[in-house]
């Protein structure tokens, strides 16, 4: 994992000649109406124009000063994550999210004519975005949804509100400069539960997309509208005795510490066969992990990081640095520590709960078959992400088949599953619950059958 070393930018890059925030509205109804008006004009734009608009989003998002501002400001506003890793996440969102080229048409031809299966826009989409990837989701959803011909109203997380409004303003300015109608992207300036409920109930909103935890995903799924739910996970990583242990250790530490474990795809627990655990732990420590096995310190960690009922992480500790967490429980971090690891049992709440912080428990099993069974159990049926390090092809196949996760990474860090240092396109909305999988433009389009009848 390479990171940029330039210094952070602390002042917002200049928005434009005026101080309006383009696309931002106080009232939900106004944000929806503005997007609807933009959509009505957008319907008459050509595919070449759409391509130019997507290019404008990519260009604006990847300007060096904007990449750095988004990354550092996201850490400052949300108070979570790692800025240098967020630079990379935004860059991949902007460059690797597919555009109009994702809308591949199918054609059927016979003596009676020709039928094409095309992609048509839904109209105005209501997109609810998370605090863990605030700008990445707006960039990636924005490219996909506009490429499919829609307009979008974003409802950002309240903890990422300021930056999200800034980004929608920047993107609107870039889109308008490229000839797009104003307000193809709008945003609710002061998001709240009530505002999100209004967005979901608006008759003009044709599709809802929730990227977040179970509560918001369940809300959109029970809205009665076409909805895409991209929910939580608890990705296990299995390591068996055939694995390249030094590489597995490096990949796991890189993946689990990436953006302080905020990605829903990041390794959340290791399930390893007993004989490899000592070498795996030693190599992980070599890669920047710090081992904490003292039961008293572990209990202090649980008290600090989890709710009293041990069912949720404490929001204030989500996405914090490993060193900060260690200091808070009275442990001096080793220089360069980026991940806390512990050897524990499967029933430990740190194993069972999606923690979203750089604390990675390791559970030992007797053999690979038991490891796969346990990993599937710990994924809790989210069908989100699983990772395995093994050279045994039949075991890799078995875990892929049985886990039925949306992403299955073999012998790599988790982030290679979303296109970062891995083959394939990028997305920050991974729809396990509703089955679209890694979303792209075609996920946000209706299927239309166009029939040309040539019968005599
Ligand atoms: P969150 O569920 O707290 O918030 C997500 C969004 O939903 C925010 O905009 C929030 O304001 C809104 N929201 C939540 N509950 C609401 C309610 N009752 N009424 C109205 N709006 C509500 O999630 P988060 O902490 O921002 O993000 C982390 C979670 O999201 C993790 O569980 C992670 O796994 C998941 N996530 C999933 C994906 C994916 O693609 N599958 C991507 C990123 C994050």
Per the CATH scheme, the topology name of the largest domain is Aldehyde Dehydrogenase, Chain A, domain 1
Mean pLDDT: 95
Shape summary: globular
Supply the CATH architecture of the largest domain. Answer: 3-Layer(aba) Sandwich
- How many individual domains? 2
Tell me what you see in this structure:
With 456 residues, the chain is of the alpha/beta class. It has 2 domains: 24-231 and 435-453, Aldehyde Dehydrogenase, Chain A, domain 1; 236-419, Aldehyde Dehydrogenase, Chain A, domain 2 (3-Layer(aba) Sandwich). 38% of the residues lie in helices and 20% in strands. The chain has helices at 28-42, 47-61, 64-78, 83-96, 134-147, 161-177, 193-201, 214-221, 245-257, 277-286, 295-305, 322-328, 349-352, 368-378, 393-403, and strands spanning 24-25, 106-110, 113-121, 124-128, 151-155, 185-188, 205-211, 226-230, 236-239, 269-273, 289-291, 339-344, 359-365, 385-389, 407-410, 430-431, 437-438, 445-453. The strands form 4 sheets. A 7-stranded parallel sheet has the order 11-12-13-10-9-14-15, with helices on both faces. Strands 1-6-5-4-7-8 form a 6-stranded parallel sheet, with helices on both faces. Strands 2-3-18 form a 3-stranded antiparallel sheet, with no helix packed on it. Helix 5 links the parallel strand 4 and strand 5 (151-155). Helix 2 (47-61) packs antiparallel against helix 5. The model is unreliable at 2-7 (pLDDT under 50). Bound molecules: nicotinamide-adenine-dinucleotide (NAD). Residues 128-133, 155-158, 191, 193, 196, 211-213, 215-216, 230-233, 264, 354, 428-430 line the site of nicotinamide-adenine-dinucleotide. Nicotinamide-adenine-dinucleotide is lined by residues 128-133, 155-158, 191, 193, 196, 211-213, 215-216, 230-233, 264, 354, 428-430.
């Amino acid at each position: 994992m390479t990171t940029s070393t330039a210094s952070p930018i602390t002042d917002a890059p200049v928005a434009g000649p005026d101080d309006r925030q383009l696309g931002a509205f106080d009232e939900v109804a106004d944000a929806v109406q503005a997007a609807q008006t933009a959509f009505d004009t957008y319907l008459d734009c050509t595919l070449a124009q759409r391509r130019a608009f997507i290019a404008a989003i990519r260009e604006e998002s990847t300007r060096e000063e904007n990449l750095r501002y988004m990354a550092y400001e996201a850490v400052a506003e949300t108070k979570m994550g790692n800025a240098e890793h967020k630079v990379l996440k935004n860059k991949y969102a902007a460059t690797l999210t597919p555009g109009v080229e994702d809308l591949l048409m199918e054609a059927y031809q016979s003596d009676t004519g020709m039928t094409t299966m095309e992609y048509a826009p839904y109209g105005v989409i209501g997109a609810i975005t998370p605090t863990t990837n605030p700008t990445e989701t707006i960039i990636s959803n924005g490219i996909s949804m506009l490429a499919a011909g829609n307009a979008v109203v974003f409802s950002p997380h309240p903890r990422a509100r300021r930056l999200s409004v800034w980004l929608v303003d920047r993107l609107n300015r870039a889109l308008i400069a490229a000839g797009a109608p104003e307000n193809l992207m709008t945003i609710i300036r002061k998001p709240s539960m009530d505002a999100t409920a209004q967005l979901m109930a608006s008759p003009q909103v044709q599709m809802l997309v929730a990227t977040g935890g179970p509560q918001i995903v369940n809300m959109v799924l029970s809205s009665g509208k076409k909805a895409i739910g991209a929910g939580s996970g608890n990705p296990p990583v299995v390591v068996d005795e055939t694995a390249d242990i030094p590489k597995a250790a490096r990949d796991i530490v890189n993946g689990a510490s990436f953006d302080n474990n905020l990605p829903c795809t990041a390794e959340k627990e290791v399930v390893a066969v007993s004989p490899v655990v000592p070498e795996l732990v030693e190599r992980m420590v070599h890669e920047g992990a710090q081992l904490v096995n003292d039961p008293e310190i572990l209990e202090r960690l649980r008290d600090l990081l989890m709710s009293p009922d041990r069912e949720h992480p404490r929001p204030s500790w989500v996405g914090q640095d490993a060193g900060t967490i260690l200091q808070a429980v009275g442990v001096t971090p080793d220089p360069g520590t980026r991940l806390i690891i512990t050897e524990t049992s499967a029933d430990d709440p740190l194993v069972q709960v999606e923690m979203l912080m750089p604390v990675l428990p390791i559970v030992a099993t007797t053999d690979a078959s038991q490891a796969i069974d346990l990993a599937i159990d710990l994924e809790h049926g989210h069908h989100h992400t699983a990772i395995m390090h093994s050279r045994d092809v039949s075991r890799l196949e078995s875990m892929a088949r049985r886990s039925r996760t949306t992403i299955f990474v073999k012998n790599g860090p988790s982030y290679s599953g979303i296109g970062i240092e891995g083959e394939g396109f990028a997305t920050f909305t991974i729809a396990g619950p509703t089955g679209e999988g890694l979303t792209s433009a075609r996920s946000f389009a209706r299927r239309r059958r166009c029939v040309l009848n040539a019968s005599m």
